[in-house]
Amino acid sequence: MEQTDQHEDLRVTRTRACIEAAFLRLLRTHTFSKLTVQMIASEAMVNKGTFYHHYRDKFDLADQVKRRRLEDFHQLALSVFEQEDPGLRPLGDSIAPMVDAPESCLEDLATLRWVPSNDVDVFDEIRKIVLAQLTRYAERTGTPLPDIESEAWAAAYLALGFPEFRREGRAKTSIGDFAASVHRACGLFM
Amino acid sequence: MEQTDQHEDLRVTRTRACIEAAFLRLLRTHTFSKLTVQMIASEAMVNKGTFYHHYRDKFDLADQVKRRRLEDFHQLALSVFEQEDPGLRPLGDSIAPMVDAPESCLEDLATLRWVPSNDVDVFDEIRKIVLAQLTRYAERTGTPLPDIESEAWAAAYLALGFPEFRREGRAKTSIGDFAASVHRACGLFM
Question: Which regions span the lipid bilayer (chains A, B) (predicted)?
């Protein structure tokens, strides 16, 4: 009996993963307002009944995907900021590869940011995660961060800007190159 | 007869300015999808007939406002980058006050950026204006700009981010402070 339940659970997880991946694929070429449940179901190769078994509508799907990807981002942020010996390695060395990875949750989050939703503000959630981690990091290591609120906002803005920047035909740019360009552009305003 | 025409023209300009200002005010508290022509007409204190005399629908209004504000931005960019003696003054000294002004067209453009539209991509238009001006500036002054495309993208991203940053309860922040925060946040990724 228990084994059947586990089997059921796995199937549910797989079905949801298929639907969510199909949704994210469609968002690369369609705006959210143009997407229908039928299109998402077809792309995921499930029928509409299956879709409605898991989600109330496309807005519910969007909220659930946002929450899941934000949780991935939270875990990544924890793994970067809570290393045992933070002093040994500059923070940037750990953050850059994580953000650079093409399969990074940031790629999806940068897309999901523009999907309207009543419940989840992707940008603000990322800002809050970064702020919490930066605060703990600064306390633990004694790093002075004079305006941590602004810095968290700016870091979230940069992190979500990078996938957009890369999508504009700069596939080979690293987050380091991107940050360097922004760094220089800051000079125009300082 | 000519005087009547001038009078007519002035009235048309004034009516359009009223409707467009009302539209921008409403966008501060409502999403575009929730706005109706009736709401915009009421806010502008004109009747719906007058609205439809000037605009096909709210999408047409959005496109026209975008184009007008982009033209304002273009003129500002020209006035900053085409000063007679560009070498005497660092570029930042002229850009910062222009962008800082609360009545700056950037404030409106940062709002209009999220209004869906088939015709005008606000971000991309700003990027193109900055790119054209940076290119001319670099040529005229011999300033080396190794990756001018990336820098124009980053400058547009920063310029449109600043009004959003200020809206989050940081009304007294200057573009210089904002750029300094982003500048420090870049360090996380470099």
Answer: none
